[in-house]
Each structure stands twice: as C-alpha cells, then as structure tokens.
From TrEMBL:
<feature type="transmembrane region" description="Helical">
    <location>
        <begin position="42"/>
        <end position="64"/>
    </location>
</feature>
<feature type="transmembrane region" description="Helical">
    <location>
        <begin position="148"/>
        <end position="170"/>
    </location>
</feature>
<feature type="compositionally biased region" description="Basic and acidic residues">
    <location>
        <begin position="747"/>
        <end position="763"/>
    </location>
</feature>
<dbReference type="InterPro" id="IPR052701">
    <property type="entry name" value="GAG_Ulvan_Degrading_Sulfatases"/>
</dbReference>
<feature type="domain" description="Sulfatase N-terminal">
    <location>
        <begin position="518"/>
        <end position="706"/>
    </location>
</feature>
<keyword id="KW-1133">Transmembrane helix</keyword>
<dbReference type="InterPro" id="IPR000917">
    <property type="entry name" value="Sulfatase_N"/>
</dbReference>
<protein>
    <recommendedName>
        <fullName>Sulfatase N-terminal domain-containing protein</fullName>
    </recommendedName>
</protein>
<keyword id="KW-0472">Membrane</keyword>
<dbReference type="Pfam" id="PF00884">
    <property type="entry name" value="Sulfatase"/>
</dbReference>
<feature type="region of interest" description="Disordered">
    <location>
        <begin position="744"/>
        <end position="772"/>
    </location>
</feature>
<feature type="transmembrane region" description="Helical">
    <location>
        <begin position="119"/>
        <end position="141"/>
    </location>
</feature>
<keyword id="KW-0812">Transmembrane</keyword>
<feature type="transmembrane region" description="Helical">
    <location>
        <begin position="76"/>
        <end position="99"/>
    </location>
</feature>
<dbReference type="InterPro" id="IPR017850">
    <property type="entry name" value="Alkaline_phosphatase_core_sf"/>
</dbReference>
C-alpha cells in the first residue's frame, strides 16, 4: 500500500487546517484577557467575537469547494484557499510558539521590525522548536477531523442555501395566487427556519453595534486578517512639524516668555555633535529648511527647555551630603576616569541576592522546607562582588554575614567608604537600547516601537559628547568665573589630560541599529563582536571560546581589551570613559563550557525552574566578570581615581514572578523595571539612598561629582556647571526631592561613618498621602518593550504604579507596591473608569485620585516626548 493512501484529500485537509488554526488562535487570544473581562458582558458579547472567524471559515470553505474538478477555476480556487489556510496555520503556530516561550501573544504590527533585522531574526529562530511543535499538533488534529469537518460544513452551507433559495417556489406561489389561503401555501418549517435565522442575524447585528469598542473590537480580530498590521510599515522622519504642545493637565506650568536666543560663552566655536541647540540659532535653522525643529502652530523651536518642563524638579539648590562635602574639601576624591557598566537583564533583587525580597522568597518556594536552609546559604553567595559594590551584605540561614573570601575581587576600600548605592531605582525602558539613552544621554526615550531614535537627533548631549567638548576647550579663559569653579592652586595635572571614550561589548552591535545609536551618542572607538572575530588567530585578542548565544561571545573575551585601556589610562596621560554592556544574562542564558554551573532551584511548584536556574548561573558569571574588572582597576593602579557606575538596563520576569507572562516583551511586571544603580569610588563615603530615581540621574550625578571633586579644570567645570541644570534628572549627591508643594518630601539616605554607625542624612521619609493638583511631583516613566504599546507610570512620592495602554488591545493595570511588592495581585481593567471603581473599595480615594492624575500625565508625556524628539510617522 502506498504511503500516499494515508494522506487526506487536499481541499478537505487544507480547510480543516484553516478552521483548526483560526479557532485555537482565537481561543488563545481571548484566554489571555479573560480575567479582565466582566463575566456577564463576556457571555453577552462572546458570539460577536467569532464573527470574523466565521467569515474566514465561510470564505475558505467556498474556495476549497469541489466544483467542476480539474478546471482552471477549480485549481485557482484551491490555490487561493490553500494559501489562506497555510498563512493562518503558520501564524497560529507562531502565536502558540511565542506564547509557550513568553506567555504573551505576538504583536503583528511590530513583526516588520524583526523581519528586517538579521540579528533580530536569530532571536525569533530560537523559538523554532515550539513553533514547529505547535504546527505539528495543529496538522495532526486537522488530519484526524478533516473529513467530518468538511462534510458537516458542506451540509451547513447547503442548508443555508435551501433556507434562502429552496423556499423560493413556495413564496412565488404565495404571491401569484392571492385568492387561496396563504397558510396552505407556506412551508411552515422553512418559515420557522427563516424566522430563527433572521432573529439570530438581527441579534448579532444589534450586539455588534452596541458592544463597547474596548476591548471587544480588539478581541474580535481573526487570523489571517490581523496579519495586515504587519504590512503597515511606519518610519520616522524629520520632515514636517513637531507635535503641538499640550497644556500640562494638573497645574499651570511656569512657562517663560520667549527669550532672545544667544550663544553661550562656554560653547567653543566648533563644538562636537550634540550641542546644536546651543550652537545654531532658530533663524539659521529656518534657513536650512528644517521645519521639524519648530511647532508649526507657533513657530517656536521644539527643543527641550528645562524652564518650561512642568515635570522637572531640580535639587541643585540643596546642599551636598555632609560626609561627601567633607571628602571634597579634603581633596580625597579624585575622578580621572569614568566606567559605566550596564548589566543586561540586571535585576535589583540579584544585585546582590539576599533574603527579604519577593524574588528570593519565590526561589525558596521551589525547595522543600527541609532543604531551604541550604538553599538560602547557596543563594546568598550568588553575587558576592555585588555585595561589596553596594555595601548590602547578605546574611546566611543562621543570620551570620556571608564569607566573601572566595570572590573574584576583594574590596580594598576602608570601612564606611565605597560611594552611593541607590535603592528604588527604576529603568526608563525594558528595551535595552532605549534604557541606554537615559543612562548615557540623560533623556527619556521615544514612546514608539523599537529604536526609531536613531533617525533623530538626541535632544541632550551624551557623555562621550560632553567629554569630547572638554577636549576641545583646553585653553585659558577669562576671569570672573563663579567662585565654586575658580582655578585651584592644587589643581592636579590629570585635569589637563584629554578624554577617550570607548564602547565595549562582546556581542553584535547590529541588532536594531545599535551601531547607529553608538555613533549618534559620540563613541568613536568600539570593541564589539566584529572586532573579536577580526582578531588574528593566536593573538591575545582572539576569542578563547565559542559564541555562547545568538548575539556573540561571553564578556570575558573582552579582558585583554579592557586591560589595555586601563593601562593606557595609567601610563599615557589619558582619561578614559568606558561604556561596557554585559550580555550573558540575556536569553537563552548560556555560559561558557569551562564555567561550572550550580543547581539553585528545587522541584516544588508548577513552574519549570530550568530557565530561572540558567539565569541565576549567568548572574554569578557576570558577578565574577565584574570582579575581574575591579581587579584590573586595582592592578593598573587607577582604582582610586576611577568612578564606576553600575546600572541595569532592565529586569527579567520569570514564571516564579508571574505565572501568566514571562520575559520583557509587552510585559509590564515590576520585576522588569527594578534595577541596581551604584556610583562606586573607594574614597567616597558609603551612602545608602532610598529614592525612586531613574537612570536620568546618572549624567547629573557624574557632572556634579566631577565639579565638586575638583576633577575638572576651570573651563571644563564652567561648562559642566552650565549644562548640569539642563538635564531632566536630579543629582544623587544631594538629597533627592520627590515632590514640592504642600509639604515637600525627600528621599532618605543612610550614611555610614568610619565607625560604621548609621546616621540620618535627611528627613522626613516620603509620605504616601496623595496631594492636591497643585503639588509638583517627580513622575517616572518606563516604556514597556517594544516601546509603543504601554508605559509604566510611578511617582517618587507614592507606592502606586499604573500601566497605561497606548494602543488598543492592552489593559490598564494598577498595583499598590507597598501592599503587593511582587505584583502578585495586579488589578486589570479595560477602561480607566472601571479601574478607579475597583480601586476605591480596596485602597481608598487616595490611589484612585492618583490613578486619574497619572493617566493624564502619561498621555501628556507621550505627546511631549514625540514633540521633543521631533518625531513624525510616514
């Protein structure tokens, strides 16, 4: 018997594949949102959710109908119907494969960006196993039911035809013989069926017209119709006018009158890129025919202006923390170099790992109770270098301080010294390169999908551009400078040395135009995967191991490059700015073959803990690598003159955090936003800051440190002092202000003096009481990967958090982080009014009022960022 005897006839099988794929896709689509749908409304409107699917099935059945077999029309019809079936089958398989990997559903509108990016395609191909498995299951089920399904739907179509066509003769007789009783001429069964059909049609039409558009329009979408979103390609352009300014919704912003433009005295004649808003007058821009810098309604420039920013709260008028001020006066803090380390998927709960966090509790729950003491002892040793960098020392199961003697680096700083450690920091985006814009350039990212910022001018100078500016102004200046930046008699020789900015990562920089972003930020030198691959075989720069993931190599392959750069800083009268992004902690969480992995997870619970265990091992690997970097600073002799800034780009959600959804893509869970933020210097007092700050504070803090530690010459200090107020973030060497108006609130700080006794640096602690609309508060925004669908909103003075949807298909989500720090019980609704209605009985009027404010501010922020960036779509 031939194998082909077991194969089904092609049209019935293709039709069965179409029905199977379409309906299971719809079931998944609805199931992901079922918890946020009111039960009665869902029951009432559920028939309307499958109308599009029924239409697709009807069209597919007609196209795959046996009619005049062998004719050209039959072949054409089968080809079109087959294409429809195969496209739906493939799309449904991708949806289920993606869901199995992340717990989320595919946003087809964003798929175009991935398909056009070779590096991004490697990410998609990692899920090919689950996609193939889903496709196989769909095909097998379709094969099993194809004959019955094809026959039943055919009979259904015949019944519909007979309903509207078969009764034609009776109706004709009725009309042509009016003198006979109409009851005798009517087919009662046909009339009954017709009445039922008409009633069903009218009812569905009524429900379709009267149902709320949100969320039912989104839920009713059917494959393959929703695939059309993938072809709506949007691209950024600088042509045209910027978004008009929206009035700030909560209070009257202090808008200043238009000031006559003047070129600042500190700006050199030919500044590097990044300073055009100070260098080029509006008139010159108009002559260059670049209207994107203007608001067409008013003719005003569309630049960011801190004087007109209703969200900006400056703490530059406040004093520096007293122990820091004393250290600066004693000239004990010297900053010749800056190293900015960005930790891929760097969760604060693991920097360092210690008891008392929601994540640590979730990890322990994977172990049986009798094994939890050992699990605690293993987990608190996971990131020893992070303990020393932050000063947050963990304790074991017996309450004793963890022994860190086996770490790859030993801290040489005196007790009570080490720098600033920020608790409460949040990322500005769960998409890596958008978050880097905050840490490297002090700007909020553009609230659109993917890295569209690469086609626009970054609206603030980035760190490499600032250091390049310092290089260009090494010349005497006029007197009459502010006293704080007058030339010092004991000015070190190093302040006259030029800066060198280098970017390093061991993976590709091709993904989502990162290479363009690095160039736009001002990096002229870089070491990336291409650099490693070009290294001559056998040289000290050639990679010693294989690529560990679809992006590239492990960080340790960069060691000779980092070593050379540090030695150059030590020997060649060069000041370095090194930006390094780690990558091993990115999916798929692989480590080099010679790295011994450990088992940190138990077998309890319903979650497969394998992925989390792999992630924890990569965290230990990167912690070791950070120890290597700190050791190289010590060995080259520049540790005492180097400021090391450590920040996470975003977190990483797992099933242990949220069983419904994992990963960062379209996942607003708080575990994706809490990140470490550390400013390490061995001669700075250890200060533990509690503040809901973001990476926007990194550049202001670095500039403030450089100025007050006398690590810049007179001219550079003048520039830094002039630019510092232009940035949106606050300096963290001063008490953080979370709100002003009513009763001002500040972040809190614990400072360890040399005797290790904590002293109170600032009071009171932030109040959680909601303030009236005249209060100006620090609002923090975090774009949710891929950037244009949702935004996370918090304010520094409250524990409340709102996920604001920016397009249809996404829900409002509220959490009270003081009550639910792990966001185990978020409140989700499809409208703001529903959310407020649910929040009031549980939490009261305060958070409900805050939610309404947050929604207005969030919408204003999205429009304002598009205006500032000069973003338009075409």
């Amino acid at each position: 018997m031939s194998l082909f005897a077991f194969l089904p006839p092609l049209p019935p099988f293709l039709f069965s594949v179409l029905v199977m794929s379409g309906l299971v896709s719809k079931a998944l689509h609805i199931g992901l949102h079922i918890r946020s749908l009111p039960f009665l409304y869902f029951v009432l409107y559920s028939p309307t959710l499958i109308l599009q699917d029924l239409l697709v099935i009807l069209v597919g059945r007609l196209l795959l109908q046996y009619a005049a077999p062998g004719t050209r029309l039959q072949w054409l019809s089968t080809c079109v119907g087959g294409l429809l079936s195969l496209v739906t089958w493939g799309a449904a398989s991708i949806q289920f494969g993606f869901f199995m990997q992340t717990g989320a559903e595919v946003a087809w509108a964003q798929s175009n960006s991935f398909l056009n990016d070779p590096a991004a395609m490697k990410i998609l191909l990692t899920g090919i196993t689950t996609v193939s498995a889903a496709a196989t299951v769909f095909a097998l089920v379709a094969w099993m039911i194809h004959s019955y399904l094809y026959l039943l739907t055919g009979l259904g179509l015949l019944a519909i035809r007979d309903l509207f066509v078969g009764g034609y003769k009776a109706r004709y007789t009725l009309l042509s013989v009016p003198n006979k009783s109409w009851l005798a001429s009517v087919d009662l069964r046909t009339a009954r069926r017709s009445a039922i059909a008409v009633s069903v049609f009218v009812s569905l039409l009524f429900l379709e017209l009267t149902r709320p558009s949100i969320p039912y329009d989104h839920l009713s979408g059917a494959l393959p119709l929703t695939l059309m979103d993938a072809f709506h390609k949007k691209s950024v352009t600088v042509e045209g006018c910027r978004n008009p300014t929206m009035n700030f919704p909560l209070y009257t912003a202090g808008k200043v009158s238009s000031e006559k433009w003047s070129r600042p005295a500190w700006l050199p004649q030919n500044p590097p890129p990044g300073f055009s808003r100070w260098d080029i007058s509006p008139e010159e821009r108009a002559e260059k025919d670049n209207p994107s810098w203007y608001l067409c309604s008013s003719g005003d420039p569309g630049f960011y202006n801190p004087k007109q920013d209703p969200l900006k709260i400056s703490n530059l008028g406040g004093g520096i923390y007293e122990p820091l001020r004393k250290a600066f006066e004693e000239n004990s803090v010297e900053i010749d170099n800056v190293v900015l380390l960005t930790l891929e998927s760097g969760r604060k709960e693991l920097f360092p790992a210690q008891q008392g966090t929601p994540m640590f509790d979730a990890l322990l729950e994977s172990h049986k109770k009798e094994k939890r003491e050992k699990a605690i002892d293993d987990l608190v040793k996971l990131t020893p270098v992070a303990q020393m960098l932050t000063g947050e020392y963990a304790t074991d199961s017996k309450g004793e301080k963890v022994d860190l003697s086996n770490a790859t680096w030993q801290d040489t700083a005196e007790e009570g010294m080490g720098g600033l450690n920020v608790r409460g920091a949040l990322t500005g985006s769960s998409l890596t390169f958008k978050s880097i814009l905050g840490s490297h350039c002090g700007v909020n990212p553009l609230p659109v999908d993917m890295l569209e910022e690469t086609g626009l001018e970054i609206y603030q100078p980035c760190l490499p551009q600032l250091f390049e500016l310092f290089n260009e102004v090494k010349s005497p200046v006029e007197p009459n400078l502010p006293k704080a930046i007058e030339a010092r008699d004991d000015e070190s020789e190093a302040v006259k040395y030029p800066w060198k900015s280098v970017f390093m990562q061991s993976i590709t920089d091709d993904y989502d135009r990162q290479d363009v972003l690095n160039e736009n930020m001002g990096f002229k030198e870089k070491v990336v995967k291409k650099t490693l691959k070009r290294a001559r075989f056998g040289s000290k720069y050639a990679p010693k191991g294989q690529e560990i993931n679809y992006f590239g190599y492990a960080e340790t392959e960069l060691k000779p490059y980092v070593q050379d750069l540090f030695e150059e800083a030590a020997n060649n009268k060069t000041r370095i700015f090194l930006s390094h992004v780690t990558s091993t902690t990115h999916h798929p969480w692989n480590t080099p073959d010679d790295f011994k992995t450990e088992s940190y997870m138990g077998d309890e619970g319903t979650v497969n803990h394998g992925l989390m265990n792999n992630y924890l091992n990569t965290q230990r690997f990167v912690d070791n690598w950070l120890g290597d970097i700190m050791t190289m600073l010590d060995e080259t002799g520049i540790a005492n003159s180097t400021l090391v800034v450590v920040v996470g780009d975003h977190g990483q959600a797992f099933g242990e955090d949220n069983k419904d959804m994992t990963g960062t893509y379209e996942n607003g869970h708080i575990s994706n936003f809490r990140v470490p933020l550390v400013f390490r210097h061995p001669h700075m007092p250890r200060i533990d800051i509690t503040a809901n700050a973001t990476s926007l504070s990194i550049i202001p803090t670095i500039l403030d440190l450089l100025v007050h530690s006398h690590s810049l010459d007179t001219r550079d200090a003048e520039i830094a002092s002039s630019i510092l107020p232009e940035y949106q973030g606050q300096s963290l060497i001063r008490p953080f202000i979370s709100a002003i108006g009513g009763s001002d609130t500040h972040g809190s700080a614990r400072i360890e003096n040399p005797d290790s006794h904590p002293i109170d640096a600032r009071s009171p602690r932030p109040t959680h009481k909601h303030k009236d609309a005249r209060t100006q508060r620090v609002w923090n925004f975090g774009l949710i990967n891929a950037g244009g669908s949702m935004v996370s909103i918090t304010s520094a003075d409250t524990p409340y958090r709102l996920i604001l949807p920016l397009r249809e298909g996404f829900e409002y989500v509220f959490t009270h982080l003081a009550e639910d720090p792990g966001e185990l019980h978020p409140m989700k609704t499809w409208t703001l009014s529903e959310l407020v209605h649910e929040v009031i009985p549980k939490f009261g009027e305060d958070p409900a009022s805050w939610i309404e404010d947050a929604e207005q501010v969030g919408k204003w922020y999205v429009n304002e960022q598009r205006k500032i960036w000069g973003y338009r779509e075409k």
